[in-house]
Amino acid sequence: MNPLPLLRPPASAALRPLSVALALCLLAGTAVAQSNSGGGIYSCTDSKGRRLTSDRPIPECLDREQRELGKTGIVKRVVPPSYTAEERARLDAQRKAEELQRARVAEEKRRDKALLVRYPNQAMHDKERAEALQQIDEVVGAVNKRQEALARQRKDIDVELEFYQGDVNKAPSWLKRKLEDNEQQVQIQKRFLADQAQEKQRINGRFDEELAKLKQLWAYGIKP
């Protein structure tokens, strides 16, 4: 009698335990990889104002805060800047310089706007220049009249000095004081005229500078 043949399981049945084990290992590896990656998104605005995002810390934003967002977009944490004390001092100085520059630009825009409101056209600017110079001319005219009065007074003093042979030392004290006061007033009026001449130059210089700026603004069609 022939012995009964040995029954062997099908090849697919023999490999089934190995396939299941391999699948479990792959799933475990994937889970570990996902756990290590964190799945976070880093976001920041760099020094040029660009909005940047990445799945890892962004090199362009190492000098500023970065926000790590979860998959739902909620901020998980804020990553602080990473730099040395020397770098921090340099960045602070740069930040202050940028703030000053922004302040200067803002102030310049404010002045330009005020200038356009005050002088919408050159005719208005020319009119105000003429009025400012006229005020100086009126003051100068008053000083000139005062100088003429002092000159007449000096002639009267010289006539009185003739009685003392033109020698001031022989003149009485009241006449000496009158002469000294006249000479002092003459010097004061001369200095005042010189000051008015400088003020006139200053006014013309200011209006010339304003007009040059206004011509640029008018040419560009900038509105107040």
Give me some keywords for this one.
4 strands, alpha+beta, 224 residues, 4-stranded antiparallel β-sheet, elongated, single chain, 8% strand
Strand content is 5-15%
Spatial ordering of strands, largest sheet: 2-1-3-4
Which regions have little confidence, pLDDT < 50, spanning 5+ residues? 4-37
Mean pLDDT: 84
User: Could you tell me the radius of gyration in angstroms?
Assistant: 46 Å
Secondary-structure element pattern, one letter each: HEEEEHHH
Structural class: alpha+beta
Characterize the largest beta sheet: strand count, sense, and whether it forms a barrel.
4 strands, antiparallel
Counting DSSP H or I runs of 4 or more residues, the number of helices is 4
